[in-house]
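Wed. Picked up where I left off yesterday with Chorein N-terminal domain-containing protein. The coffee machine is broken again, so keeping this brief.
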Amino acid sequence: DAVLSKHPILAFSHRVQKSDDHESCGSNSTNRSTTENTKTSAKPRRIQQAAPTDPDLPPGYVQSLIRRVVNNVNIVINNLILKYVEDDIVLSVNITSAECYTVGELWDRAFMDISATDLVLRKVINFSDCTVCLDKRNASGKIEFYQDPLLYKCSFRTRLHFTYDNLNSKMPSVIKIHTLVESLKLSITDQQLPMFIRIMQLGIALYYGEIGNFKDGETEDSTCHNKDMLGNVTGAEDETRIDMQYPAQYKAQELYSQQEDDQPQGWVSWAWSLVPAIVNYDDAEEDYLGNDPTSTTHQQKAQTLKDPIVSIGFYCTKATVTFKLTEMQAESSYYSPQKVKSKEVLCWEQEGTTVEALMMGEPFFDCQIGFVGCRAVCLKGIMGVKDFEENMNRSETEAYFFVCGENLSIKGLTYLTNSLFDYRSPENNGTRAEFILDAATHKETYTEIAGMQRFGAFYMDYLYTMENTTGRGSANQQDFSSGKSEDLGTVQEKSTKSLVIGPLDFRLDSSAVHRILKMVVCALEHEYEPYSRLKPDIKDESETMLNPEEVASLEEYIPTRHTSVTLLKCTFTIFMAEFNLLDHLLPVIMGEKNSSNFMNTTNFQSLRPLPSVQILVDKINLEHSVPMYAEQLVHVVSSLTQPSDNLLHYCYAHCYLKIFGFQAGLTSLDCRGSYCLPVPIVPSLSTALYGKLLKLPTC
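Structure written out below (tokens, as returned):
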């Protein structure tokens, strides 16, 4: 016992061994009861793992040696193959080589450890020859025709930067993970497009925890009131927190406790809950002692444990997405198998792409997306019309029907600003980075003008915050999974999205219209069942009446989702149709059965001069606001005999449209690709529109 008291690791092993010997003598019923208790205490254990007894205890020699070894472990994986199969979808990822190693200040391979003067740990992960394939299998599970790979032999590198508060910190206070891809070439065929959209929907459903909701023949679960449906996804909030606002008003205390035990947890919340457990590697003794249900010290210290700041970034210098149409091609021999031949019809080119996410626990999440320039180009022919074949000798300006933003040669490397790949970033100059975690300061700093100066073509900023107004501590230090009403009633959620699109030129001719509609038709040609179904809009007659205090508390703050879309300096040119095959595309879009794959082999003859209508707009601004939890709010307001105007206002989805400097004129395109002087038909004007839509009108 004296030896064990000096060595906690041995003491922990000794306790576990004694516990195992004791359990082995028990009966099977005892084992079953132990298993059931383990399942019910899964979530408390996850919190206990994240709460060390004292996070700043000086480590011993063994712990210091283990830390140094762990910090310099090199991991090499060769020929990694991942495969996902669902229905007729077969998604496979093949990585030839992946290597993770520790680096120094200049991101070169080195043997490093954190020190008092440099509380930083850097790592690099290199991925070589990543290939992603997406194929369709038949009823027997075999792939008859292999499609072109979505991504073929793409290499990229990831930099990881960990900042610690002191030498004895068990987990970093700042985590940065940034990935850079020099060239990204994606290829999507008409058969892969619906499967690709299906996989994206799977990711959204996993994020919101909506897999399997409202299946046919099942009754509606009461806890499903606490989720937004997939068709109304307008933000990236973790929907497991949906009843944090208005716990008294919605009478959801019992529902919330039931949700914590029975409801499927969101994918992001599950992953976030593992962050402290992954980084902490010496909390076994505390976790063992935390099994005592009478012990509350771990839960109290879990609330005071500060969440790390996590920054995740993806940067791409040049990216292209090519859309292809496939057709069956038989071999010369009668018994030879058929092959799939693909033809490129549309290509999207993009430069200087940035995707950044900044989060600090659940109360703060920000995502910014932007790119410097983009353009869309027509390739070859569409539906048998050879409008852009090589022998047509059409100009390059006619092929590009959408142009937005600038070139990297003019803009520079602004898309890498403050990333780990920017030599001017604080991490690459030996200083600690500062992060804006306040909503008011964030909106003042990341404005539309700042976004356009950094990118130029497209900028999106999504911000979600959860604030505590009681003054008993910051929101990020609260235990939001406790489900206590005195904490939940003071939480205020805010969700704002700002999208800005820079100067653009959009040419809507026959070639562009048919290619865009063809992609829409291909996306609709599937028979996949949705992952989650919308709840039927049925009025609940058993609503509980609220007292005046609850109504007054409800009116104090109602969380909303606000979206703003701004277009700057837009030019739209609508040409007279040079060919028209819409009678084969529109029926499919309108929901009718696709009759057959129409292929017309008529020769294309360009018409010059080509009349057109040219529209110029200085600025277009669209603002949309909707209550964050519309279903609960409408049910509560509908139970009131005389609801106030303020409550009725938030039961609507509001839309504001403002147009500045709208003007239109007639022009024509000559054989040289230039326009004649426009003849004005609509002088410059400005206007505004407003509309609102009632949520759940049956209530």
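Quick read: Confidence is low (pLDDT under 50) at residues 1-52, 215-263, 276-304, 472-489.
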